[in-house]
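Re: Re: ligand-bound prediction request (bumping)

Still looking for help on this. To restate: I need the protein modeled with calcium ion bound, output as structure tokens. Inputs repeated here so nobody has to scroll up.
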Amino acid sequence: MAGTEKGTMAQKILIIEDEPKIARLVRLYLEEAGYEATAIHDGGQAIYAFRQEQPDLVLLDLNLPGLDGLDVCRKLRGESDVPVIMLTARTEEADRLIGLELGADDYVVKPFSPREVVARVRAVLRRASGPQTPGEVIRAGSLSLDMGSRRVHLGGHELALTVSEFDILHALARGSGRVLTRLQLLEASQGVAYEGYERSIDQHIKNLRRKLEDNISYPRIVHTVHGVGYRLDPLED
Ligand code: CA
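Reply:
Sorry for the wait, this slipped through. Here it is.
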């Protein structure tokens, strides 16, 4: 097992996947890439394993025995902002959108190459550790984003955001009132604009609004520009 010695600081990945062949392959590739990976095969054990392992990232199959992947995602989000990448079948599009709505950060569609999974893991973890500019604070109205600690405050209250939510909000704040397209937001948040992933932006925006807005039906901070994208226009205190 890689990364068990003290001081190696390997990042931990928890794989929740009931197909042993897939779980094993993904684990091997992750270990080869320098991560410490653990696989469990039952959704019912997921939360327990998560608490035990305290992973830096969770790879979550949606179709699981025990507890469904979406329920696992909901429970994880109930107690943690850990980055979550869903492993989904092509036919599970509706579930995928629900998963994103529940706060998953990204997804990979089966059949995937293990290399692709490793690339996504690396990308999400890179975002989670953030750009190394400690102390830089971006302000927009009553919102403030600390780029060093990746903490967000709205009117003095700290918000708990997922990696994706933070990156999208950051891109909007940097745009200072400019409209950004879904593709631009996708690129800003994922580093790459994967084709067909634009709809995931809408889900992340929905989640952001739930955390930012008093009334999500009448957003006053993150505005939709129909046919174009989104723009940030927070009110001053
Ligand atoms: Ca499965």
